[in-house]
Design a protein that fits this description.
- 80% of the residues lie in helices and 0% in strands.
- By secondary structure, the chain is mainly α.
- Helix 1 crosses helix 3 and helix 2 packs across helix 3.
- The two termini are 36 Å apart.
Length: 158
Amino acid sequence: MKKKNALQNIILRGLWGFPMGLAIGYTISIVSSLCYAGGYYAPCVPVLIDKVGSEIGAVVLQAILCGLIGTWSAATSVIWDMERLSLMAQTGIYFILNASVMMSVAYFCYWMEHSIKGFLEFFAVFALIFIVIWVTELLIGKCLVKRLNTNLYKIQDN
């Protein structure tokens, strides 16, 4: 991939990632409200509201940070296009880059308990979700390759 194309991909993917991050963050706040808020909508944790000074300020801050997580995740996805890197290297780099941003935002937004235990628990959940998504994508990719190969063999036999 050429540097100019890579930079364009990073920018375009990052722009697309912001609304995706917002949508995912909003969805998570709805699901967590359904599970833990006793019938009320809790857009963010009470500690963040106290630290920011107002609910709307906390919600805006959290929305921006969710958008930035989406931007970062989408922009760093260009790593998967770097064919000179092994799949293991791509995975490791992508995981480290995204885990560092996610853990920072999670700590800042009080999505985790501010302790070693809280950090490790949140990191374990993040890693588990990452692994599930990665394995799912790998299996989907394998199925697509198998389907392509089957069609190529059919064409070749004709």
